[in-house]
Amino acid sequence: MNPIRKQKLLIVGVILGGAAVATALLLLAFNKGLNAFFTPTEIAEGKVTGTQNIRIGGMVKKGSLLKEGLQGTRIEFIATDFNEDVPVVYTGVLPDLFREGQGVMADGHMDAKGVFQADSILAKHDENYMSSEVKAAMEAAKNKQAAKTVANGGAQP
Amino acid sequence: MIPELGNFALMLALCLALLQAVLPMAGTYTNSQLWMGLGRPLSAGIWVFMVLAFACLARSFLHDDFSVAYVARNSNTELPVYYKFAAVWGAHEGSLLLWVLILASWGYAVSLLSSKLPLDIVARVLSVMAMITAGFLAFMIFTSNPFDRMLLNTPTEGTDLNPLLQDFGLTVHPPFLYMGYVGFSVAFAFAIAALLTGRLDAAWARWTRPWTNAAWAFLTVGITLGSWWSYYELGWGGWWFWDPVENVSFMPWLVGTALIHSLAVTEKRGVFKSWTVLLAISAFSLSMLGAFIVRSGVITSVHAFATDPERGMVLLALLLVIIGASLCLYAIRAPVVKGSASYAANSREVFLLINNILLVVATAMILLGTLFPLIHEAIYGEANRMSVGPPYYNTIFIPLMALLAFFLGVATFSRWKKTSLEHLKQNLKLVLLASVVLGIGLPLLVTSSINPAIMLAVGLVLWIVFGVLKDIRDKTANKDSRLAGLLGLGRSYYGMQLAHFGVAVLITGVCLTSHYSIEQDVRMKPGDSVSIGDYSFEFGGVVERKGPNYDAQSATINVSKNGKAYRVMNPEKRKYHARGDVQTEAAIDTGFFRDLFTALGDPRGDDAWVVRLHVKPFVFWIWLGAFLMAAGGVLALLDRRYRYRPVLLAQTTEAPSATAPDAVMAKVVNS
After folding, report:
1. In chain A, where are the structural domains located?
2. What percent of chain B has a predicted confidence (pLDDT) above 70?
3. Residue of A7, A23, A28, A70 to mutate, interface with B, max B Cβ within 10 Å
4. Per-residue pLDDT for B99 more than 70?
5. Of A26, A35, A94, the CB nearest to B389
6. Which residue(s) pair with A120 in the sheet?
7. Which tens digit of pLDDT belongs to each residue from B425-434?
8. DSSP letter string over B219-258?
9. Does domain A35-155 have CATH number 1.10.10.410?
């Protein structure tokens, strides 16, 4: 084989090796690190089955935050998209911008009782900032509510 | 009046940038010395006007001129003077001004330090940089002008700087980061100039190397400061979150690292030329992508600037023009550029190729993870959103970096062109043996438990460190005295070894912190105490304290070590007057071998508070390692050969023969 071709073969070999390692890692990583995002409405519709890790987003329902009288650092609150609610339980320190009536995102899983067990609550740097996920979810819920009202209205004589 | 002056300076800078983008470049085609020569004075002019604009905005901040909308949104009469100045780059418009000022500064620096370069190359490089400057200036003037006024209804008080930014780490973080991002524009401009001329030779690589090193070192420091800041200011004790905004700063860094190594091959051996050019284009393109992602709000991030889709579209257009044009040029011209030397399968060239592939694969994976939510949403619609979490990145990144650390050790002992296996075996035998034995032995002795991940990490760290030490010993062995040998090694050699040593320190920090940190979130009443390791934390309650522009709830935590009083720590929760934001201020006791980290959570009734207590071993080493890497980069660019020999190499248009660089190196060493 002439040296130039040999050299090219070498480069292609190294690149293919890299690609193979990359693909293997990628498949593994996709299995572990991808979380689907769900809204309270989607959870109420039964779209989440099993206890895989998911991310939820919504608003912290006013008056729902419970932190006194619980064991240790546990807190409970309700995440809502103004259409459906999901109870959330979290143990640990809350981010500074976590407040009732504000947007919230949480990573964790649904338990058998339909309670969301949060591993982490996501903080925001900017209180006016709402993630596109939560914003879109709110819009969707609003549309659904509107559709429901129309449907109810239509059903009445 | 002053803000108008600033505005005027911006417009003048834009005019000059447009002139510079066109004239020197046109001069290279008409072979007009005059036009090509305009590059240097014009870049000085742009720089002067950018400094003036920056000074005007700074003055408006220092004088509380709330008729300037940007000042009103980001300052306050109560804000300490230091932060008033730092607030200049505290939000979108002002940080863009800083970005362009830095871009102009790099251009000016190139014009000052390029006296030995051929005029046509300087003209092309400066023109390309001016095109980028003009693009960003136009974007700033037309969509995000920091000097916009509110002359009617001028507010009497500003809404204050975001309290998260009222902190030393974050005031110096953006300038360093931007120095890095924008610094890659120099390598980019050199690459474009080389593609235009078709002269892609060792001389070109030699000119590009110091600029790339400088940008890379700045970016390293910038990212490190950001990580350090998120560690102590976000209040939660983490130091890397794989957040999209972190990722977009990390990707140009990884590609920049690849570029540094690939430039070494192009300079010494005259191969990998088109690959090097592609890396130079990619590094800057990824910097631009970062600017777009941070400022457009297309991706959810905890760090993102306030989002504005319209600005995002303009930035995206700018991004597409720059990247698209440079890649088109690359596609047309790259085939012209061919490597001339040959090398064997077992040579330093190939080991550096492996380095490059690992770094580029890591970058591609991070890019995929960062953009995946967007891609997924585009394909499956808004109802099916995904987020990509840290496990994705860790699964991919850690094995790739372990491989990289392994090949780092091998490559140090490999030779250009061809390395005999015998040579490698002979050199690495002892290093391998020592790192395997100690890698297994040390963790076993210290923790008396078997943890394969730790053993692998310790082994790799020792592999790198022993390799560095052995290589320095070998290189000085044949000299008259050890000291003469040490003095004879060039700065770029020491720079390389220092940076590699920094990698080892960084890995040590990352690995030990992640595995051996003890973290407890506990609910404490005054008088309660918690023991972690040798330390005992006693909660003394919370008192009110007044700061300059905030009220704080300040906790007292008495820390004792082995029963003896050690120190008092005061983590706080601060409520800032102007915005009413609450901000956690962690208290940290930094040590060489461990940090004590305390943060105050929320009140839970009956004087009880949630308190976060961490003991984090070796966390300091993460930043120490990163700074050592940056220092290595700076040391390498100070090497004499970048200053003493460009005249000689400028005439060499073909790649030098394999022996030339070494011979020249010897000459420099002897002189």
Report:
1. 1-34, 35-155
2. 93
3. A7
4. yes
5. A35
6. A107
7. 888 888 999 9
8. HHHHHHHHHHHHHHTSSS--S----HHHHHHHHHHHHHHH
9. no
